[in-house]
Amino acid sequence: MKAITAFLVFLSVILPVEVEPKTAAYLVTTATGRPDLADDLIAICWRESRCTPIGPHSGDSDLDPSDGWRGQINLGHLDKRCQPYRPDVWHTRGAWGLWASVHWRYMPPCYQPEWLDHPLVSAHVAIQKYVKCENNRNYKGWCKTPWKVRKNNIHKKKRRHRPR
Q: pTM for this one?
């Protein structure tokens, strides 16, 4: 999955391919084989940014760096040499409101936080995170979506036939 994220970074950052967040949600959910989760991803996008392609979330710029960047450096998840601390950079970013310092498990090594500002990259990270929430049936915090959206998606899934 990190290779796919690296390819999306290449498309979005190196070759400036501009995609709206809603379009990115449909593309990424279809590409990952989970088109049933597009509505969930769009609901999260709407809650976090009104589905607009934004960079850093100004409301989160005062977060304590020890909770994010410094903590991930201490755990060995980020590399000081290629991911230096910069104020107001390693916090919540992009259309899906992803905290840049803690999504290392979905990103290639030495990723830059600005990469999450690109809707394709952000959508790819968001769908991986949401699938993990779905597998754990954890719909709290970031993973919280309106029940109406989840209920509609539950009915879209194929159900196993139970003998009566």
A: 0.77
Burial of 34-45, coded b for 16+ CB within 10 Å and e otherwise, reads beebbbbbbbbb
The two structure tokens encoding residue 150: 């989840």
| Number of domains observed in the structure of the chain | 1
- Name beta bridge partners: 56: 93
Model pLDDT for residues 19-33, shown as the tens digit of each residue: 899 999 998 999 888
The CA distance from 37 to 42, in Å, is 9
Would residue 164 count as lying in a domain? no
Radius of gyration, alpha carbons of the chain: 16
DSSP for residue 42: H
> CA 161 to CA 148: how far, in whole Å?
24
Where in the sequence is the domain holding 54, given as residue range(s)?
2-156
